[in-house]
Amino acid sequence: MSGRRLLLLAEQSFGPMSSKTANAAIRYIPEQVVAVVDSALAGQTAQQVLGFGGDIPVVGTLEEGLQRNPTVAVVGVAPSGGRLPQEWRALIGGSIAAGLDIFSGLHIFIGDDPEFSKLAREKNVQILDVRRPPPDLPVSTGLVRNLDATIFLAVGTDCNVGKMTAQLQIRDVMRKQGHRVGFAPTGQTGILVEGTGIAVDAVVADFIGGAAERVTIEAARDADMVLVEGQGSMVHPGYSGVTLGLTHGSMPHAFLLCGQPSRSTVKHNDWLPTPSLTDLIKLYEATMALIRPAPVIAVALNTFDLSDAAAREAIAAAEKETGLPATDPVRYDPAPLVDALVEFHNKRTAG
Amino acid sequence: MSGRRLLLLAEQSFGPMSSKTANAAIRYIPEQVVAVVDSALAGQTAQQVLGFGGDIPVVGTLEEGLQRNPTVAVVGVAPSGGRLPQEWRALIGGSIAAGLDIFSGLHIFIGDDPEFSKLAREKNVQILDVRRPPPDLPVSTGLVRNLDATIFLAVGTDCNVGKMTAQLQIRDVMRKQGHRVGFAPTGQTGILVEGTGIAVDAVVADFIGGAAERVTIEAARDADMVLVEGQGSMVHPGYSGVTLGLTHGSMPHAFLLCGQPSRSTVKHNDWLPTPSLTDLIKLYEATMALIRPAPVIAVALNTFDLSDAAAREAIAAAEKETGLPATDPVRYDPAPLVDALVEFHNKRTAG
């Protein structure tokens, strides 16, 4: 993976809340990113647009991006609508023509497009449609329970609250401390960062658990602790099935609950108030109670849209409400969360 | 639908616990069934093999079946392994060659087989691969909450405990009583019986809720009560994601809990004891509590493998444990369950 040089295609969509996959690449593997393509923001840096990312440049055209010798073009944002707009076709086609591999998280498979696949063969270029599930997934049957590793699953008060980011922050600190920790990617962004994994929301419904089981077992190789990338939320009417399937496939020993204090309703569901942390802790614990009881042991808050004072207040309130350690592991030191997980692991394995 | 004449292909698999789709057709639409093909049981009747189905004959060859002038061949049982065995290819190919439409619930799509699809075009025959999802499913967002109808979802202590059968028994009694009741099929068997629906376990995971939403809205047309076909179980590690997605997509006002008293462990998961009815009621109610609270209001038991005395004892025990009306709606009068649902509907709409 280390030889990759990534060109992030984010035309008309680069921004703190819009280009999730590009942003995660910039946060976690900045050394691999050569440029971002977005004609609307050309001339700025990632730092200026996102508040992190240093001097990674935003360029206005594919040609400018190609001058920086990328090896992979990353299509990390989904254009609205079911089809590829013409300008995106030009970006992808131009990238393949220039000999770049393609990494795509789109619902539409780039590799199934006759024009792109023909061009890719001619240029000997690989197209990785990361949402295309493996063909041989099983129905899960709790195999994960035989692993020695301690499994932690991030769950959310909602979707898109920063579950993956929280876990990667925790992972980085754990690695620095010398722990053997694996990350199990279950979505396109985690897969881009880690170079492996399965997008569990893209598999046929019967195999959600089987996909989760497989990535968890894979991540547990050479690891004492596994952080499973969370998806959706148990109260999101559109994604809860993925969340529960992921839970029962990965069978966590404990949960990390992630939330965003500024959200008052569930995403895409204005009619549905975001439940309290306390109610969500009860619900998540109930989903495992009859199978292999697992507690929520820490709370990660995403406070990017709050002032420092409001963020610290939200964290204190979460700690008071839940009796659990809480922090924003991006904005502040992730130590309280890391300590909670390591302590849980030590207690579990001491017995 | 009424003009259909069904030939049920159940080669080497016809039996009380093995040919679920064929059995449901025989129970609910026997007037449409002309014969069952299973060379191992040729010469017997459905009644002799299943204990119901009267004199529907089991024949040993496709040719014998064709003499009864079927219009549709139903492939209702999944041959083990990922590929179609040769004898099944011959049955399906022979059916198409004879001009029969094909109804298939296989994971492999018959219509994608070059030989079968070519033959089907030549014979002007329709192939319905019932597990092929509609191409335009949405992510669900709770639209169902705007329906006037009272929505009941069957849920289970496990998969394959008789959820669909219980609901169809209830539906039949309700219709006889003059109620306007809709059935929302979510699996291949329900789809065969009803002639419409979506197999929710066959859609891409992100769209489980969207599929459930669509079939529920469809079934609510011209109905005051909707019975949504249940799938899986909230404690089945392989299928729980489908169950929760179906729950949040259909947003039931109340649940019917279905169980099979003779099961002591979860299907395919010998390591996992079947939880008590009480624990499952708490879990199912918890999954809706933060969204739109819905109680479990009745218990349907599948006692086919118990003596009459043991069945009556199990029903009495379930009533005592849960404080809810319970019965086996196939073996005994479904009235206690019907009454509970109708009473709930009347109370809800009286307000």
Give a brief description.
The structure is a homodimer of 351-residue chains. The first copy, chain A, is an alpha/beta fold and 351 residues long.
Folded structure, characterized:
The structure is a homodimer of 351-residue chains. The first copy, chain A, is α/β, with parallel strands linked by helices. The first copy, chain A, folds into two domains: 6-129, NAD(P)-binding Rossmann-like Domain (Rossmann fold), CATH 3.40.50.720; 143-350, P-loop containing nucleotide triphosphate hydrolases (Rossmann fold, 3-Layer(aba) Sandwich). Chain A has twelve helices and 14 strands. In chain A, the strands form three sheets. In chain A, strands 3-2-1-4-5-6 form a six-stranded parallel β-sheet, sandwiched between helices. A six-stranded parallel β-sheet of chain A has the order 8-9-7-10-13-14, sandwiched between helices. In chain A, helix 2 links the parallel strand 2 and strand 3. In chain A, helix 1 (20-28) packs parallel to helix 7, helix 4 runs parallel beside helix 5 (114-123) and helix 8 (208-220) packs across helix 9 (240-250). Chain A is globular, with a radius of gyration of 20 Å. The mean pLDDT of chain A is 94.
Secondary-structure map with pairings?
Two copies of one chain form a homodimer.
Chain A: E1 6-9, H1 20-28, E2 33-37, H2 46-50, E3 58-59, H3 62-66, E4 72-75, H4 86-97, E5 101-104, H5 114-123, E6 127-129, E7 150-156, H6 163-176, E8 181-184, H7 188-194, H8 208-220, E9 225-228, H9 240-250, E10 254-259, E11 265-266, E12 269-273, H10 277-289, E13 296-301, H11 308-322, E14 326-327, H12 335-350
Parallel strand pairs in A: 1-2, 1-4, 2-3, 4-5, 5-6, 7-9, 7-10, 8-9, 10-13, 13-14
Antiparallel strand pairs in A: 11-12
